[in-house]
Amino acid sequence: xxILNTYIAATNTHDFEQVRKVLHNNAVYFFSDQxxxxxxxxxxxxxxxxxxxxxxxxxARNVHxxxxxxDSATCIYTxxxxxxxxxxxxxxxxxxxxxxxxxxxxxxxxHEHLSNQL
Length: 118
Known about the structure:
The chain is of the alpha+beta class. The protein has helices at residues 2-11, 16-20, 39-52; strands spanning 23-30, 35-36, 54-68, 72-85, 88-103, 106-116. A 6-stranded mixed sheet has the order 2-1-6-5-4-3, with helices on one face. A hairpin with a 4-residue loop joins β1 and β2 (35-36). The radius of gyration is 14 Å and the shape is globular. The two termini are 26 Å apart.
């Protein structure tokens, strides 16, 4: 589904207003170290990550759609990131789950769950 690509592209702008455009009003994020339940908390988390990892590139790899319905869709994938921390190149990956819902005709992300790779 195109909404995942739209979300990843918005994330890679490093402009939270672009990310906000694809977020549902009730979006909840489960990061490995924090739960974010408001757009402000999500924005703070994203902006902190973009500050720590400079020039970050984020990708969804090995995407598998568990469900694609008229009003909801769920996918799992391996997330991959790369960028620079204190001038040194870093990268990593983990597991991701995204849940999208159709809201007033537009697809929105209502839940993201990220965890470390096993």
